[in-house]
Amino acid sequence: AAPEAAFDTKITRRRTRPVKVGDVTIGGSAPVVVQSMINEDTLDVEAAVAAIQRLHEQGCEIVRVTVPSMAHARALADIRTRLLQDYQPVPLVADVHHNGMKIALEVAKHVDKVRINPGLYVFEKPTSDRTEYTPEEFAKIGTKIRETLEPLVISLRDQGKAMRIGVNHGSLAERMLFTYGDTPEGMVESALEFIRICESLEFYNLVISLKASRVPVMLAAYRLMVHRMDELGMDYPLHLGVTEAGDGDYGRIKSTAGIATLLAAGIGDTIRVSLTEAPEKEIPVCYSILQALGLRKTMVEYVACPSCGRTLFNLEDVLHKVRSATSHLTGLDIAVMGCIVNGPGEMADADYGYVGKQAGAIALYRGREEIKRVPEAQGVEELINLIKADGRWVDP
Ligand code: SF4
Asked: Could you report the predicted ipTM of this complex, rounded to two decimals?
């Protein structure tokens, strides 16, 4: 018999603990959170504030910045103040490196979450003649990492803030590479080492990521992480992303292949699509992934046939017109079909349908019911009238 899950048409998400980042929650029963990162130098407070606001207005719910120096960390205080004065609070995350632990402690005062990369906590110089680390050497470095990390963990814990343990496949520490290889296992063990340090200090506001630029590596790392966390009784939320995905169609498809595959299996609580384009362009991709999987509905769902020899009007044109007129009506499903050869069920139970009927005429549907036939030239206008008559219209 088929497993019960095979009949599910809704994704059941892995149970995770809720982690607060400002007023946004990652994990728990919260919807999957969309985030991105600004490119601006945070020393340029004006430009950084404008970029954060731009992203937030696009629907980016958490914004990340990098803080390469103490001056950058201090600038975050001004950025935060400016956002509060001129706009609204935006949950902020700062990326920091181990050699800037003072920087991390400073920035932790001004942001809601700090992201650290375990691969950058290296206390060993890469050596060409070394081929392994003894367990003693391995543990000794672990102790140094713990001592280094402790003040930041305590600061975040005491302020009720969060930390992302963000492992990258491309920057694993040498001792992890030698011990576990350049593998998902090495990535997972890196994350677990840092989680254990945090837990020993009673800090649990953690989000974990295991990014890679190769989708199969990224998939394996997250799946293994979930497996290990389940074994260990850990329920930390996961931040999903494919690094260095590039740009254009392929960058979007590559990100979607990684992120959506995991989301469909119920894995993932926040996502970032990394594109080599303006960060604002990442946000619609995130929301499209979430909508396609039925995890969040933030726009009109258009159902449209690809058109064929039976098509009775220019489907591409009509879909474009219908979209321009209705794309602000969040929550509706609208179908545009060249004909209704296989019955109204083909419209996937859309709320409204615009269907080719005969040359020069189209039919409008409400659900599966044909409401009226109108000349094609009035099709879009009549569709709007029908939505208005049903009280489901709002002005753009
Ligand atoms: Fe062709 Fe009709 Fe199918 Fe559209 S719905 S692809 S027009 S058969």
From this structure: 0.98
